[in-house]
Write a structure and sequence with these properties.
The complex is a heterodimer of chains A (166) and B (257). Chain A is α+β, with helices and mostly antiparallel strands. Chain A has helices spanning 28-42, 79-87, 91-96, 98-101, 123-136, 151-156, and strands at residues 8-17, 47-50, 69-76, 110-116. In chain A, strands 2-3-1-4 form a four-stranded antiparallel β-sheet, sandwiched between helices. Helix content of chain B is 49%, strand content 13%. Chain B has a three-stranded antiparallel β-sheet. In chain B, strands 4-5 form a two-stranded antiparallel ribbon. In chain B, strands 6-7 form a two-stranded antiparallel ribbon. Chain B has helices at 3-8, 13-25, 31-38, 42-54, 96-110, 113-128, 137-146, 166-176, 181-191, 206-211, 213-228; strands at residues 29-30, 58-63, 77-82, 151-155, 196-200, 234-238, 247-251. Classes of the chains: A alpha+beta (166), B alpha+beta (257).
Chain lengths: 166, 257
């Protein structure tokens, strides 16, 4: 178990490049899944926070990484909680059909990093972690499910930062 | 303990019966229950259950089975569950796991989901052969049991809180095997009086599915769709939850609402 040591939470960013605009009928099955899957995230064990555009139910209209790139930014108590939601909930069905809706990414499109509990990462901070992973590979500062680090390892490496930003 | 030594522990027929009984239940099993089910004395069952635990095939814990607690509740009983660790022996040595992981990694990177699913569906159809599409959940359970999925019937409910339904699940299985009507009532009450679905305790592709979930779970769904047949009354769909196969089977008439 990767317990949430020292009051650390796990932040997650993933980006997805849409094959068609969100209002295209070919994307409709994905759009239909947005509300139920987001609701199941909000109710999932270990869920802390997810990025939502002000006045909207999700963050799909925010395009900080490109015009056709949607972002998903969230915070979880543990890596296990995030894994179970990602792959062992209704979210798996979205993942299974990803090739119908999204371009295949050559570079990393998902990044995990530890934040002090209570810190809500900004989009800029998240994109910087993704860029770190893409250019330097996994480290305690930016990693993936298959190359993960504990909060204690991140702290030891001096990467449990961002508390001063709050 | 090496895999071959752990597996050799099952050579003893009583141990093997006890192991299979515990493994089939997907929940904690007490000594008395296991002894009764295997037709041996409690002491002998306890001895063999502990041997199986030493070999790493079972895991043991303690639990008050009476539901009481505090002074006078009695000593906690020893309970057993199947260990999650995989054991396998291949003679001569073969390593299909590494091959599967490498192929999955390449397929994931190349985005070959659609091609993999098409192949899996064809394989499922080939395994079914000339047989008509699966006609009922009971028939589906036989097919799945033969392929190691460890299927069990469950009330359809809302899919939440699976662990709380364990007692009902075990009883629903008894019902499928021909137990009394009160058992069915009990199971329905536990699960919300919905139409039964088939869930599977075991994922035959567990290790690769954990590493590449969308790819391998999608492959598994396509394989099951081919195996059951597209035109019959039994339908497979994804309904992932922790600790089980991500696919659920239902009869199509339940989908009209």
């Amino acid at each position: 178990m990767t317990a949430s040591a020292h009051g650390a939470h796990l932040a997650e960013l993933n980006i997805a490049t849409l094959l068609h605009p969100l209002d295209d009928p070919r994307i409709a099955p994905f759009v239909e899944l947005l509300d139920p899957v987001n609701a199941s995230a909000d109710g999932a064990p270990g869920f802390v926070w997810r990025l939502v555009e002000e006045g909207a139910d999700d963050a799909t209209a925010l395009r900080p990484a490109g015009e056709d790139v949607i972002v998903n930014l969230s915070v979880w108590e543990t890596q296990e909680a995030l894994w179970d939601f990602t792959y062992r909930s209704g979210h798996l069905e979205v993942m299974r059909r990803r090739r119908e809706w999204f371009e295949r990414h050559v570079k990393a499109h998902m990044v995990l990093w530890w934040v002090p509990a209570g810190h809500l990462p900004t989009v800029g901070e998240a994109l910087e972690r993704l860029a770190d992973l893409q250019s330097h590979g996994p480290s305690p500062r930016a990693f993936t499910f298959t190359s993960s680090y504990t909060a204690a390892e991140a702290e030891a490496a001096g990467h449990l930062e961002a508390a001063q930003l709050t | 303990m090496k895999d071959i030594d752990a597996i050799a522990v099952l050579q003893d027929p009583v141990r093997r019966r006890l192991y299979e009984y515990v493994a089939a239940h997907g929940r904690e099993v007490g000594r008395n229950e296991a002894a009764e089910a295997s037709g041996v004395a409690r002491n002998l069952a306890a001895h063999h259950l502990d041997k199986l635990t030493e070999a790493g095939l079972l895991e043991s814990g303690s639990r008050r089975l009476t539901g009481r607690s505090g002074p006078g509740a009695g000593r906690p009983a020893k309970v057993y569950t199947r260990a999650q660790v995989e054991r396998s022996v291949s003679l001569p040595a073969r390593d299909y796991r590494t091959a599967a992981e490498l192929l999955a990694e390449a397929a994931e990177q190349a985005g070959l989901d659609a091609g993999l699913c098409a192949a899996a569906r064809r394989r499922g159809e080939a395994l079914r052969g000339a047989t008509a599409p699966c006609g009922s959940l009971e028939e589906a359970m036989e097919v799945l049991a033969g392929r190691g999925y460890e299927p069990h019937l469950e009330g359809a409910g809302d899919g939440g809180a699976p662990r709380a339904e364990d007692a009902g699940v075990a009883r629903a299985e008894d019902h499928a095997a021909g137990a009394g009507a009160d058992v069915q009532a009990d199971a329905e009450q536990t699960a919300g009086a919905a139409a039964p679905v088939v869930r599977m305790r075991n994922c035959p592709f567990h290790a690769v599915a954990e590493r590449f979930p969308p790819l391998v779970c999608g492959m598994n769904l396509a394989l099951l769709e081919g195996l059951l047949g597209a035109d019959g009354p039994v339908r497979a769909r994804m309904d992932a939850r922790p600790g089980e196969c991500c696919v659920v089977l239902e009869t199509s008439k339940n989908n009209d609402h």
